[in-house]
């Protein structure tokens, strides 16, 4: 089993203090003890392989064995995710984090029932952080600001998942970074599809939920782009 991963934005020096929520989780929940190994990452590619040097009530000090600076995944994979009801938005973020998506951009599509606000944004960001650690990522998934249809349509390499599309995602030509659009439960409205432009694509003969479609499509794209 790989070592547990904790987020630490400052990885300078031979010894690193892990405190706050991450230190509390390491000391109280994971109950790490002196001598045990762990990885500290800054979410921007730096990973420090460490050993626990000392443990306090809600923090620990880790001795850095070595550091690595991992390059950002390339080509870049972004998913524009329409807002979903209840906890399905967080589920979508969690699954896409696990399969390696680089950024999720929330989109208030015309047929979205859910509304975007600061609380929803905080839940998406928290989900991305926890899922990135669980997936042992050194580059964390980021949650972008809410995008309009016009802003989404201006992105390069745009692919739009649509159940009436005839082009399979598995065969569409790819060139460089990719932005994938996932619509809401009610589907993408015809006028939105026209405004977005890009290339409509489909995964297969079945219709996936908005919470799972992005992760399934990202898996296909990761294999095709050579990221997997």
Q: Structural class of the helices, strands and pairings?
A: alpha/beta
| CATH-defined topology of the largest domain | Alpha/beta knot
Fraction in beta strands: 25-35%
Give the C-alpha Rg: 20 Å
CATH architectural category of the largest domain: 3-Layer(aba) Sandwich
Number of helices: 6
Q: Main beta sheet: strand number and arrangement?
A: 6 strands, parallel
Q: List how many beta strands DSSP finds.
A: 11
What shape does the CA trace take? elongated
Give me the strand/helix succession: EEHEEEEHEHEHEEHEH
The CATH homologous superfamily of the largest domain is called: SPOUT methyltransferase, trefoil knot domain
The percent range for helix content is 25-40%
Total domain units:
2
Q: Regions with pLDDT < 50 over 5+ consecutive residues?
A: none
CATH C-level name of the largest domain: Alpha Beta
Averaged pLDDT: 95
Strand order in the sheet with the most strands: 8-7-6-10-9-11
Structure description:
The chain is α/β, with parallel strands linked by helices. The protein is built from 6 helices and 11 strands. It has a 6-stranded parallel β-sheet. Strands 1-3-4-5-2 form a 5-stranded mixed β-sheet. It is elongated. The mean pLDDT is 95.
SSE blueprint and pairings:
Elements lengths: L4 E3 L7 E4 L1 H10 L7 E5 L4 E10 L4 E10 L7 E6 L5 H11 L4 E5 L10 H17 L7 E2 L5 H5 L4 E4 L16 E5 L7 H7 L2 E3 L8 H15 L4
Keywords:
single chain, 228 residues, alpha/beta, Ribosomal Protein L25, Chain P, Alpha/beta knot, 2 domains, 6-stranded parallel sheet, 5-stranded mixed sheet, 6 helices, elongated
